[in-house]
UniProtKB/TrEMBL annotation:
Lineage: superkingdom: Eukaryota
Gene behind the chain: LOC116525326
Protein name: Olfactory receptor 56B1
PROSITE patterns listed in its UniProt record: G_PROTEIN_RECEP_F1_2 (PS50262)
Molecular function as annotated in GO: G protein-coupled receptor activity; olfactory receptor activity
Taxonomic source organism: Sapajus apella
Length: 322
């Protein structure tokens, strides 16, 4: 056994010196973390059900087949992909003690999480642009925001995020994992995995932060710029009622953006300071990937009049008369 370990250490043909990682779960609460499976299952099932419901409603109602709702439908697909990348493995850890994950599977999960989170940020930007054109250039809106533009924007976001984040798992795979293989996390995060490396992981941290700020940072900057123009346009309206109506169409979008980017900044700061994996950062990381898929359709359903009316119609609820 010792001879085998020694030959493994000196072998140049073997890229990795550990063959698998072990996901321990939430730091400090291993003994009772299985109880967290109940809220996780509820969040996951509600995310799948609500987002599927959104897609069906948009598909079946011609009045909802306009840009704002089409982008919401794309966001629903992204949300379900993100939740499915993470939750089933977490439940396997909590229910069946299936803590082992192979290296390729782990790096694939790192890639998928980064792609879906980047896609979510990109769709938020598309939604902000849609609101900007609708409020600031209403007469030109039908000629600018066409189905062709929606398709091109979606394909661009898929390609951007699919290609943009490749360096993150590739750099993680190039690290030298020579001894430790236990990760204090429920999922394969770049920070958690590369912290086990025996060599310098600073290139990984720098790469992830640069890509995050180039991708999501530019998205957030453009979203803020869009809302500056929207606010400027709204304040010029003579009617307070018209201004309130214009802003109400943005309220659900702003709610989701605020939650999404606040947690992104917190996680980035945690990453930058190379804080040791403790419960709060790990919990934030997990919740950031699970809550938005459940929250997004609910916020839109309650804050968007047309969508709310369709929900009430499908669920046979009495429509509120104003």
């Amino acid at each position: 056994m010792n001879h085998m370990s020694a030959s493994l250490r000196v072998s140049n043909s073997s890229k990795f010196q550990v063959s698998e990682f072990i996901l321990l779960g939430f730091p400090g609460i291993h003994s009772w973390q299985h109880w967290l499976s109940l809220p996780l299952v509820l969040l996951y099932l509600s995310a799948l059900a609500a987002n599927t419901f959104i897609l069906i409603i948009i598909w079946q109602n011609p009045s909802l087949q306009q840009s704002m709702y089409l982008f919401l439908g794309i966001l629903s697909v992204v949300d379900m992909g993100l939740a499915t990348t993470i939750v089933p493995k977490m439940l396997a850890i909590f229910w069946f003690e299936a803590k082992v994950i192979s290296l390729p599977e782990c790096f694939a999960q790192i890639y998928a999480i980064h792609v879906f989170v980047g896609m979510e940020s990109g769709i938020f930007l598309c939604m902000a642009f849609d609101r900007y054109v609708a409020i600031c250039h209403p007469l030109r809106y039908p000629s600018i925001v066409t189905n062709s533009l929606i398709l091109k924007a979606t394909l661009f976001m898929v390609l951007r995020n699919g290609l943009f984040v490749i360096p993150v798992p590739v750099l993680a795979a190039q690290r030298n994992y020579c001894s430790r293989n236990e990760i204090e996390h429920c999922l394969c995060s770049n920070l958690g995995v590369t912290s086990l490396a025996c060599d310098d992981r600073r290139p990984n941290s720098i790469c992830q932060l640069v890509l995050a700020w180039l991708g999501m940072g530019s998205d957030l900057s453009l979203i803020i710029l869009s809302y500056v123009f929207i606010l400027h346009s709204v304040l010029r309206l003579n009617s307070a009622e018209a201004a309130a109506k214009a802003l109400s169409t943005c309220s659900s979008h702003l709610t989701l953006i605020l939650f999404f980017y606040t947690v992104v900044v917190v996680i980035s700061v945690t990453h930058l300071t190379e804080m040791k994996a403790t419960l709060i950062p790990v919990l934030l990381n997990v919740l950031h990937n699970i809550i938005p898929p459940s929250l997004n359709p609910i916020v839109y359903a309650f804050q968007t009049k047309e969508l709310k009316a369709c929900f009430q119609k499908v669920l046979c609820l009495p429509l509120q008369k104003r």
